[in-house]
Write a structure and sequence with these properties.
This is WYL domain-containing protein. The protein is α+β, with helices and mostly antiparallel strands. About 15% of the residues are buried.
């Protein structure tokens, strides 16, 4: 399911929401996938406002972005 959502973002240019387990713990990120590599993705991260790399193995979930969801 995660791969399907990542590929859809890449092919359609959709923003998606991922739960990511990184060095500083878990975080929720809204991203747009720019490239899918063997073990990581290159994506624009709306939290950091820059292009970032995310390890595929550290993406715990991925879903289509819900613009009606209240972000706190």
């Amino acid at each position: 399911m995660i791969e399907h959502v990542l590929k859809a973002s890449l092919e359609r240019g959709n923003i998606i929401t991922i739960i990511y387990s990184g060095k500083s713990g878990m975080s929720e990120r809204n991203i747009k996938v720019l490239e899918i590599q063997e073990d990581k993705i290159k994506a624009y991260c709306y939290l950091r406002k820059q292009v970032r790399y995310f390890k595929l193995g550290s993406i715990l979930s991925a879903a289509y972005f819900n613009s009606r969801k209240k972000v706190v």
